[in-house]
Amino acid sequence: MWKFFHKLASPPHFYQFAGKIVPWFAVIAIACIGYGGFAGLFVAPADYQQGDAFRIIYVHVPASYLSMMAYSIMAISAGIGLIWRIKLSHAVAAAAAPLGAWFTFLALATGSIWGKPMWGTWWEWGDPRLTSELLLLFLYIGYMALRASIDDIAKADKASAVLALVGVVNVPIIHFSVEWWSSLHQGPTLVREGGPAMAPDMLYPLLAMILGFTFLFGALLLGRVRTEVLYREYRARWVRELLLGDGGTT
Amino acid sequence: MMEVLAMGGYGNFVWGAYGLTIIVLAVCIVGGPVRHTKAINDVRHRIRAMEAKS
Amino acid sequence: MTDTRPLVPSLWSGFVGIVRRDILLAWKRPGDVLNPLFFFAMVSTLFPLALGPSSEQLGSIGPGVIWVAALLAALLSLNSLFVSDFEDGSLDQLLLSPQPLTVLALGKAIGHWMVSGLPLVVISPLVAISFHMPDQSIKVMAVTLFFGTLSLSLLGSIGAALTVGLHRGTALLSLLILPLAMPVLIFGARTVSLSTSDDAVSAGVYFLAAYCMLALTLAPFATAAALRISNE
């Protein structure tokens, strides 16, 4: 089992392994999102307080969850790359950033669209969760900007790893902000004592969407890491054999 | 059908949010293979250039 | 006569040495200190000029404006934190010295704060008065700026270390530091606002002090790591 992970740290093995896994993740993602989206939009009963507007939850919550998950993955793999000097780990961090930024944008946008009918405003500066999620977007952008400005890949990896780790403090703040400060945002609905506070026929599509988005993110991430690996390892023989076919110099 | 579109009066918001989601996800999903193919071409060039020099 | 000095300089002497050096350098070039201070004062006056002198309005925007001006002034002075050392080779010497780089990084940040943040805290009452802020707010403003500017110097040193030697590092530095600085700004400005309406401010002050302590203990490690990375 350990050997399996150990092998995975080697770029050519990872490249192959990821290539095989991505289609499976995609299939699971399609199935979950298909069910979740359909049920969320058409099957789940309307909320008695929010009416049909609550259906935005089925895209907003998965996006927010993934925006934080992506940052955690980015920070953890950056940290692993920095401490144990595993190049592939840095590639994972680099690949996770743009995806995380997109999901953060989506979370902010869908949240804003949901907020307008529910709270009467597109944005509320005083709200701690909105502010810390916006901060998360800025952290992603800063990370990508730093990477882009350093030419040497190894140096860019390490510098952006320091930045990612410094910013990881924001993730628990976003999550707990609704508990620590008064906020327009509702408190935790899913992960709380006494179990989720949602009716099953509303809950299951949500869980499916969260799962589906996670697998989608996984597929996208693995795909991007493969692309990163090609750029980073272009000097290696396995890349040459893969792309130009074996046999003969050109 | 019209009920579905109206979504109890919140139709613009709900479909707006879902539409935005689809667009963003589509950008990410399509972007992946596009970048990967570009990477393959770029790297092929680089390898050839590298070998032509040596 | 025997020399009884220790063979290897101590942590404390390393730290003090760095702080003294930066203070001496700033003393020799007062412009480095005064420019951000003037910038702070001038940016603060831009708002009354643009928005009109109505007293209540000034009183209500005062905390926010002064805090943003302080943040911008800090960003301005952070740009050059490591640049001159990088250019004349002192940075390499820092990296080679026997003291842990973390201690030296802490020294750089504290030295920077003493030269840019502290003076700002000292002149902040003048700016606050010009905004017609009540007396208790002026005190709270000074206290929040005290912790705030210290946090900014510490957090800013991380960004400065990451961007030293980079082409066009200036804008990038701001981009990197601002997310870290936002909690400081939010709590600092809001706390002062609360004081203008006589609300309790201790929670905000404690938060700022805690954030500052966090930065004080953790930022030097990140700065040291960033310095090593930027310099290889």
How would you portray this structure in words?
The complex is a heterotrimer of chains A (250), B (54) and C (232). Chain A has 250 residues and is mainly α. Chain A has a domain at 63-189 and 220-240. Chain A has 9 helices and no strands. The model of chain A has no long low-confidence stretch (mean pLDDT 88). Chain B is mainly α. Chain B is rod-shaped. Chain B starts with a helix and ends with a helix. Helix content of chain C is 83%, strand content 0%. The longest helix of chain C has 30 residues, at 101-130. Chains in contact: A-B, A-C. Chain A binds chain B through residues 37, 41-42, 46, 51-53, 55-56, 59-60, 63, 99, 102, 105-106, 109-110, 113-114, 116-117, 216, 220, 223-224, 226-227, 230-231, 234-235, 239-240, 243-244, 249-250, and chain B through 4, 7-11, 13-14, 16-18, 20-21, 24-25, 27-29, 32-33, 35-36, 39-40, 42-44, 46-48, 50-52.
Shape of chain B: rod-shaped
Structural Rg of chain B? 22 Å
Instruction: Provide the succession of SSEs of chain B.
Output: HH
Radius of gyration from the alpha-carbon trace of chain C, in angstroms: 19 Å
Query: Care to count the β-strands of chain B?
Result: 0
* Tally of domains of chain C: 1
Coarse shape of chain C: elongated
The percentage helix of chain C is: over 70%
* Distance separating the two termini of chain B: 67 Å
Strand content of chain B: under 5%
Oligomeric state? heterotrimer
SS field, number of helical segments of chain B? 2
* Largest sheet, strands/sense/barrel of chain B: none
Largest interchain contact: A-B, 38 and 33 residues
Query: Which residue ranges of chain B are poorly predicted, with pLDDT under 50 across at least 5 consecutive positions?
Result: none
Q: Helix coverage percent of residues of chain B?
A: over 70%
* Class inferred from helices and paired strands of chain B: mainly alpha
Beta-strand percentage of chain C? Answer: under 5%
